Amino acid sequence: MRAKCPKCHAVFEVDIGISLVHFGPWRSTKCPACGKRSITNNFVNDPITWPPEAASQEKQPPLTDEELMKKRLEESKYEQKEE
Description:
Distance between the termini: 61 Å
Radius of gyration: 22 Å
Number of helices: 1
Structural class: alpha+beta
């Protein structure tokens, strides 16, 4: 089931668990996007917007030896040297 938060308008998946506070398709749900609890409609057809798809999840090609060496050199600038 999908629910839509009336406060931040995020659409997210909800489990079909037992809810103590519900009125037909409406139930008290905590929004994972904004963290606020509200009465949401659990039967919406909007596309899911939460969690947002991160660009970092895309697979990136592995670094070449030269790129890896440059990265190590760049990171070593910030290491503290023991004297």
